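Thread: quick sanity check before group meeting

JM: Hey all, I'm pulling together slides for Thursday and realized we never actually wrote out the predicted structure for the chain we discussed last week. Dropping the sequence here so it's in one place. If anyone has concerns about the input, flag it before I start.
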Amino acid sequence: MKRAFIKSYGCQMNVYDATRMADQLTASGYEMTDKADGADLILLNTCHIREKAAEKVYSELGRLKGEGGLIGVAGCVAQAEGEEIIRRQPRVDFVVGPQAYHRLPALIAAAEKGQSPVETDLSDDKFQSLAAPQRRAVTARGVTAFLTVQEGCDKFCAFCVVPYTRGAEVSRPVADIVAEARQLAEAGVREITLLGQNVNAFNGADGGGRASLAGLLAQLAEIDGLARLRFTTSHPNDMSEDLIAAHRDEAKLMPYLHLPVQAGSDRVLKAMNRKHTADAYRELIARIRKARPDIALSGDFIVGFPGETDADFEATMALVEDIGYASAYSFKYSPRPGTPAATRTDQVPEAIMSERLQRLQALLTTQQKAFNRACVGRTMPVLIEKPGKHAGQWVGRSPYLQPVHIPEGAGSVGDIVEVAVHAAEGNSLFAEPAGRRVAA
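JM (edit): ok, ran it. Output follows.
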């Protein structure tokens, strides 16, 4: 049996895509391996969001060119670079974008004949054409899983490459999603995170009508064995009232929401083409917290967007102070080729961006530590996911997505156990069993 190795970079959707590519390869007779050395096929599943993403891929390809098997490049760098990848690195045998990996078997067959196919079609029939995952492969993924329900984005934020690498918004049919989620649950998955570049814009076919993300969550919540639901990533403008109500009413929907705002300055938000204001975001958060007072919030922030002044940055700091985040991701702006912001002449100097990012991250870290400390003394259900780094220890996740370390005797992988939190260190919580197993 031939062996295939997949290295995946970047976002959670790439993690999901890697599992589905593995399904395609398994159905074509490959055995998956965790080592590139000696593999008959090496597939780099790339991400184009961060700075110098393409150059990092070319560097990796340079290290792999001595390998004897086929080499393919998939994902968003593949979509953005296309034939340029093979021109710059002739050792690459094929290139496939994130909307076309259902054609992997045909591309591999062409590469084996000495061709160098490049497939970057932004097709919307990918999911209908993918091979169904085999049960043993699903079981090996553990008790948590990602499930893509929506791809692409119509927002065209000035800094973002997603509309160009993933295409327009496309939602999968509800019946297909429910079937995949049921298969995951039957294989032992207890928690599913629904994925989309703009997941709360979900508008999937459902019988003779359409279903919103809230409607989809309601149907998934009915699946036996599935105990927890999450979703990411959302846009503030698509945070509908029925989705806010779902956080109030649906017990399986965890009280954690990743809702990027990117900046706290209306001037910068307008330049970013975000189509919302800082106060609109504050008001939205207030409505969400009224519906679910214990919700933990996460966000994304870009520091140093072109033209950002000291006053603009202070507005971002003020918004962070007002909201209070349990966790967040923050980055210096980096130009992405082909995006409107990349051509602006008022780029912020690197030294200023670094100083601002340091201040922002210090504030966000303070907030995260405060949120974790506030969990000490509480009891909460934890889903046990895997053994910890130390003997006799399990690691699980709280409803708020924090890692929680508990004694091994508290239960088994896949159990949801009630624990009493006694310490918070770094990003993690430490707990003891509270004497009650919530669900087996």
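AS: nice. Residues 161 and 338 are 7 Å apart (CA to CA). The two ends are 37 Å apart (CA to CA).
JM: adding both to the slides.
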